[in-house]
Amino acid sequence: MSTDPLVLFMPSGKRGHFPVGTPVLEAARSLGVYVESVCGGRATCGRCQIEVQEGRFAKHGITSANEHISAIGPKELRYAEKRELKPGRRLSCSATIEGDLVIDVPQDVQVNAQTIRKDVDTRSIERNPAVHMCYVEVEEPDMHKPLGDLDRLKAALEKDWGYKELQVDAYLLPKLQQILRKEKWGVTAAIHHGEETGRPTLIALWPGLKNEAYGIACDIGSTTIAMHLSSLLSGRTLASAGASNPQIRFGEDLMSRVSYVMMNPDGREAMTLAVREAVNNLVDKVCADGGIAREDILDAVFVGNPIMHHLFLGIDPTELGGAPFALAVSGAMHLKSSDIGLPMNPGTRVYMLPCIAGHVGADAAAATLSEGPHRQDEMMLLVDVGTNAEIVLGNRQRTVAASSPTGPAFEGAEISGGQRAAPGAIERVRIDPDTLEPKFRIIGVEQWSDEPGFAEAASRTGITGICGSAIIEVIAEMYLSGIISEDGVIDGSLAQIQEKCEAVFRPDLRKKNNARSPRITANGRTFSYLLHEGSPRIAITQNDVRAIQLAKAALYAGVKLLMDKLGIDHVDQIRFAGAFGSFIDPKYAMVLGLIPDCELENVKAVGNAAGTGARMALLNRDYRREVEETVGRIEKIETALEPKFQEHFVYAMAIPNKVDPFPKLSAAVKLPERKSDGDGSDGPADGSPRRRSREERAARRNRG
Amino acid sequence: MSTDPLVLFMPSGKRGHFPVGTPVLEAARSLGVYVESVCGGRATCGRCQIEVQEGRFAKHGITSANEHISAIGPKELRYAEKRELKPGRRLSCSATIEGDLVIDVPQDVQVNAQTIRKDVDTRSIERNPAVHMCYVEVEEPDMHKPLGDLDRLKAALEKDWGYKELQVDAYLLPKLQQILRKEKWGVTAAIHHGEETGRPTLIALWPGLKNEAYGIACDIGSTTIAMHLSSLLSGRTLASAGASNPQIRFGEDLMSRVSYVMMNPDGREAMTLAVREAVNNLVDKVCADGGIAREDILDAVFVGNPIMHHLFLGIDPTELGGAPFALAVSGAMHLKSSDIGLPMNPGTRVYMLPCIAGHVGADAAAATLSEGPHRQDEMMLLVDVGTNAEIVLGNRQRTVAASSPTGPAFEGAEISGGQRAAPGAIERVRIDPDTLEPKFRIIGVEQWSDEPGFAEAASRTGITGICGSAIIEVIAEMYLSGIISEDGVIDGSLAQIQEKCEAVFRPDLRKKNNARSPRITANGRTFSYLLHEGSPRIAITQNDVRAIQLAKAALYAGVKLLMDKLGIDHVDQIRFAGAFGSFIDPKYAMVLGLIPDCELENVKAVGNAAGTGARMALLNRDYRREVEETVGRIEKIETALEPKFQEHFVYAMAIPNKVDPFPKLSAAVKLPERKSDGDGSDGPADGSPRRRSREERAARRNRG
């Protein structure tokens, strides 16, 4: 065993023996512990700060003490005096190992007077960005060794930082001489690590020490574009901003945008310009909010669904509008920001995550990277609900993905009172199982509708409609309170005023429970449930229920196909990604049978997981390799081609499901008694949902 | 020993045994014999033609016969019928080895009806261009394997052509879908081999079979820009063109252009734009001459002296105007043509050869590549005469380089009757040693001035001045005929009309030979030699002789320093590169002592060797590695820093030289008897040339 001191780095836990006198930074690097350094050990950038954790660490057999690190030297002292070095902090480039140490690498090294406006999420992302800032002092020209300025710069970058066969962005050539001479041959180089090219590239150069570099991570959604600005040197998020996708003016949903391209000769170009302009405006906004210059953004990561991905790259998405749903590009893309009309620094690089399949995009890849089903043993289902639900299911061993054509119902389209999530929209609903009276909340108002002050508060926005999350809730609550059957039929026998009339036509209703509510009214041959009497009048019609049934059945059938593929009958974890997922109550989603049975506590909304994944790929290039490798391994299921889809779909039309038992949900929520026994033996092998409903109704009538 | 058939490829001489049935193309590839193929073995491009050489090749132990190659098959027959296959030619992708063969790989495979307008030189350059054309058939989209179009294209290029981890030019992304679908997923890809990036890159793509690709090679001289257009698939030169460098309007010589940049804020930009515009016009011209489209140019190679190199790249050349003559960039550059304002194909690549030193540019590197001192055992001196002479000396073991400040005298500047080489300029001079009467030729007229018809022919252009090559000749002839001494003094004693007057002041002249000529006339205290009485009157003055002495002494001193460095006292081969070199008669150059003693037959003008080197680097990327490696090994001598320069310079003021014996020249040309014994023992250690001449004159006077 080595008699050299033992050094343990936290939080990574990496450890090793090093000779007395080894700089801590060198020890960290040799263990692969990422500690930032721009100045290359000159004790001027202050990025390489660490802290000694004192004490006896019995588990590791280390007694760590401040005496085991060298006393502060003159260079470090100069930094501490000129800048600011918090008590206990040391510069790891200058401090040397003198005995056993436990070293903490803090994630909050902040060297400039920069204000951190917003922390996107609490997740701390281990850093290893694709762009590194490297200060070097270049040899002056020498007539005896007539190497060019650039060639001597390359030599310095190889000697001090180990970069070999460096490529150079052409735009730098005319600027080199001045930059090199301005601060007496001291320069900071931004080096992009070239996974895609195999060689590192010099992408930007500044005179003297340039001690900041930034990156943006952006999720281009069909509806919303979200962007984060992060420091590549500290990992901190300086600003976040969002904007509507201006392509909405060409079409609300994805398919109407594809149609627009097909119908209009300049449609593709117009939509590309629109989305790029919106992204450019967001760059301006995050720069203003973060107090930085656009030129200091050196790296950018973009994700989006396949159609957004293609339009952003200037690629015609028409092929994605029909079978075989051929992506023009599926692999990860490495570009310059100037290639796609995003002027930042002339050397700024752009990385786009890979798409998984024609309907499972780079956003799903990013969400996968963020939630990491492939990093764990438990079986995780990751769902991003939209016009197309993107579904990923798997664990460390195997991961599968598909999209399901849920249609726009979950987004409030095709629903009589449906609308986007906006102030005034109903977002939560409860129905009293005894009185069948509802209460609800609307976006922008704290109180429930039965609480004092609600009416006054609601008068500011009005009660304008019902948004996606509330549609889920109201239908689930209608089911729980017996207003609709497991087949989704609104029980007309509960209608108060039309009872007699109904009784004439529908003798089956007479045997139902005897609660009666004026909220249940007939619409021709079907019934609806009145949620809010006002202007507009908001009611849940039989058609609304059917639309949600179709949407949730499509989603569930997709999930089931993936479960079949993996040969599993339950999942351990469920993650809802995306804005819609953030507002869904997992309980109601499961009651409705949107998602398979699972411990409720293991169903979580993860917000903009795609944005988080983009930020991970921005801050750590290892995640780029990880997502590329993972997407390469993901097995893609094309739901339209799977013969069992139809069967799963038909069963999933029932609430929560015709055949699946949902034991964990039953343990947590009292579900109405099932009418069918759920063994699936009498399930029809095919048939459209509507046809099947008619058949079932007929069957029940016969039974009745 | 293998019992498989033995196959020998000519002209490379590479040989190997291959199993019966091996396609000839496959055998060639496995031996590293470059045989072009675009269609990848589909017998459609016709590029892979070979010929069987029949007969008994005793030296190789091969009896080669047409029966030893497979009979023409249906695919080959179809090509032969549709296109044209010359008798005896076979497609090596289809023809298989059936017995011992000697295979000739012809260098003139021509598959289109393209006219070859001009062959630049007779040199056949073995091909291995940086851009390869590769036809592939891409798999159609498949919902079960949702790889993108690009990703399937990459897979096809890896499978059929072995290209791994292919990069893609971003401009292609929006075009991919249409190109792939136009000819049913058959496309031709242009792949650039990425020495600079480590990875190959897809730079252009066409539907179907694209059976042509072109490149340009361009030498940007201070005075003239020369360009060649070559087929990358056949190696043929389709067109060549030249143009004046429009930067001349900013300054005749290099240093005046550097001054212009220093004096004018927009000077650099104006000169960059000027040279790029001229290059663009030349591209148009060679495309028109070659009958091809600009977009079909996929690769371009540029060379130039350091100042032209920098200005072309948009780099300020001011640093090159003074010590330490720092190049901004010395290594080879890999760019896109769009980086430097040369619109061709959006994917066109540009390669610039490395510069050797601050005054020894990429043109000298290209000339070195062309003439190849580093490829042979003999010691070769390569000289490119200009305002700065670029000098390379060496052999396989070791190569050194320097520049010498010859000044503009050789270009006709600083010479009283001097002018550029142009119609009407005297280009050849002979002086009758008895009568001291001259005869000459002028550019544009066949006859010598003493031949019938000269006056009439010359009246069209006039006799306008004397160009560089004739200045060398007239001064050498003046020396050979005794008009000037080895010290370069015009012998006033030969002046007819001033004899008496001279005799009074200069008793030393009385002992001279008694030829007398009215052409020798006094100018104040010195004399001149009248070459042509007319308008203008063209005479060689003592100042003219001195200017040439200074220039040639600088060149020779530079050569001597390089010889010192290598420890050699003679050279085996001398090559004059550049336009000036093409017109110099080696004999006169050596009589004057411009170049060291050498067998006259081993002194050759090689024309635009820089252009040839550029063409080599265009047609074979192995030459790029060779020139980069060679330039890396060349030892650079900065003449200004060498203490012995002055001494060599002073000796070299004499004609041919004060101390060097020139035995080979003496054997070929009757030189005047030397006045000094040439042992060098009495040579002054320093002193300016003028001062030394005065001293010598005084010494002679005393002796006299």
UniProtKB/TrEMBL annotation, chains A, B:
Biased composition (Basic and acidic residues): 693-704
Residue ranges of the region described as Disordered: 669-704
SUPFAM superfamilies: 2Fe-2S ferredoxin-like
GO molecular function: iron-sulfur cluster binding
Pfam families in alphabetical order: Fer2, RACo_C_ter, RACo_linker, Raco_middle
Residue ranges annotated for the 2Fe-2S ferredoxin-type domain, each copy included: 5-109
Protein name (Swiss-Prot/TrEMBL): Uncharacterized 2Fe-2S/4Fe-4S cluster protein (DUF4445 family)
